[in-house]
Recover the amino acids of this structure.
DNA sequence: TAACTGTATTAAAGCAGGTAGTACAGTTGA
DNA sequence: TCAACTGTACTACCTGCTTTAATACAGTTA
């Protein structure tokens, strides 16, 4: 469920951060659901507990989860909008880069439309096999 | 003209790579134009010659420039398409991220349209003051 | 030939990501 | 009460990447 890719160049804690927000958006994690403990999840992923703790602390800073010492970490009041907003900020940067590289807004839009037709199937499948 | 931001978290050689492709796309650098020498540009930017050389070597690897030992580095046959293609690959990743985070293609497209109306003026101004 | 060019090499410093181990404080349930 | 869990904090260390530094070598140019 929380699977990440250790061969990726992006930091593990960032992948975990994104993965958990994804699960919330998809509805697989709901408000007040309990997350695995730092140590348990670290063992499951084969990474260091500190790395998981770092992801959890970032998620708590952004009010995506709340952590209670001695009890565990839980999904906060689901704020889909703020998650989307943060994502959109990252997306903005990518758009800016593309425009500077000479691509037009129309080219980007066309690309998104093509992308969408390819990506939908994969999203559907992902719901079952994890 | 080749200004970069030393406070950025992205590597200097990457910034320089992008900057030069930008200048080509904008038409400010044309085929067979001579680039500043590695040492000269390094002095201008206040960075190490090795860092500039690294950027130049990446640009040569991607056929954006060609370098002649003893002579200098020059803009290659301008292949706007391949530059755009590389940029589009990076853009794809950003789109995939956004879709996974629950944003819809329509939301992204709407965002690009708004973004465009904001960004155009800045692009126009940039041509003169560097 | 002097002064420029790109290129290559080695060494060192700085930083971020990740691991490892330990410790402390709060909670839970037997 | 107490063992076993929880999050949190801290130090130390390793690794890889980025950058700097100092040379050195080979080709070009005036």
């Amino acid at each position: 469920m929380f699977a990440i890719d250790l061969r990726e160049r992006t930091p593990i804690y960032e992948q975990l951060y994104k993965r958990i927000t994804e699960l919330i958006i998809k509805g697989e994690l709901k408000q007040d659901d309990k997350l695995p403990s730092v140590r348990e999840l670290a063992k499951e992923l084969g990474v260091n507990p500190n790395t998981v703790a770092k992801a959890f602390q970032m998620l708590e800073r952004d009010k995506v989860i709340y952590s209670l010492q001695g009890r565990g970490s839980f999904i906060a009041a689901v704020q889909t909008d703020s998650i989307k907003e943060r994502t959109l900020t990252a997306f903005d940067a990518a758009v800016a880069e593309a425009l500077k590289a000479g691509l037009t807004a129309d080219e980007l839009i066309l690309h998104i439309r093509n992308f969408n037709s390819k990506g939908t199937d994969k999203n559907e499948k992902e719901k079952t096999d994890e």
In short: Chain B touches chain A at residues 18, 21-22, 25-26, 80, 83-84, 87-88, 90-103, 105, 107-109, 111-113, 115-116, 119, 123 (CB under 8 Å). The beta strands of chain B are 65-68, 72-75. Residues 37-39, 53, 56-57, 67-73 of chain B lie near DNA strand C (CB under 10 Å from a C1').
